[in-house]
Amino acid sequence: MSGRPDADLPPDTQTAEETTEDARQDAPRVDSPEDTLVDAPEEAPEDAYEDDDEHDDEGEDLLAARARRARWAAAGTGAVLALAGTAAALLRAAGTAPVLAPVAYACGAAVCALAAVLGARGRTRRALWTTVAGVMVMALGDQFD
Q1: CA pair distance 36, 59, nearest whole angstrom
Q2: Is 107 buried (19+), middle (13-18) or exposed (0-12) by CB count in 10 A?
Q3: What distance in Å separates the CA atoms of residue 58 and residue 51, rounded to the nearest whole number?
Q4: pTM attached to this predicted model
Q5: Tens digit of each residue's pLDDT, the chain (145 residues)
Q6: Helix crossing, 100-120 with 50-94: angle to 10°?
Q7: How many other C-beta atoms can be found within 10 angstroms of the C-beta atom of residue 81?
Q8: How far is CA 18 from CA 15, 27, 29, 39, in A?
Q9: Are 99 and 137 contacting, i.e. CB atoms less than 8 angstroms apart?
């Protein structure tokens, strides 16, 4: 690629072709190797970094809140679908439906209950796909009816 990077490199890392007259003027002058050693960084005021810590805490709190909502959503959805599948299995078993219909609803309800457990443990992505599989099994049971 022949394009230049978006940001200019510091003068000490630029190649000879990339060094411009402005960069040469801005570059620090080093007289001896001893001048390049840094003893200790300058002390910053104590309150200089307080804003950064607050923003980091807010970001962590936001991520924790999102994770908690995802766990609750996965666990709640799995539990509701498991209860609905169980109720549908009981209604189909009490009626004149073929045997495969209530069995499919019960199996789908069991898979959704597993999704609720996975969601409660924080495996929300797996819980989502397990919930989808459980609903598909229940839909298959609806086809037998």
Answers
A1: 37
A2: middle
A3: 11
A4: 0.58
A5: 555 555 565 666 656 555 555 555 655 555 555 555 555 555 555 555 555 555 556 778 888 899 999 999 999 999 999 999 999 999 999 988 888 999 999 999 999 999 999 999 999 999 999 999 999 999 998 888 7
A6: 160
A7: 21
A8: 5, 14, 19, 31
A9: no
Query: Residue 80 has which token pair?
Result: 């509701």
- If you search the block for the tokens 């007289």, which residue do you land on? 31
Q: Can you give the three-state secondary structure of the chain, one letter per residue?
A: CCCCCCCCCCHHHCCCCCCCHHHHHHCCCCCCHHHHCCCCCCCCCHHHCHHHHHHHHHHHHHHHHHHHHHHHHHHHHHHHHHHHHHHHHHHHHHCCCCCHHHHHHHHHHHHHHHHHHHHHCCCHHHHHHHHHHHHHHHHHHHHHC
**What's the rounded Cα separation, in Å, for the pair 101 and 71?**
31
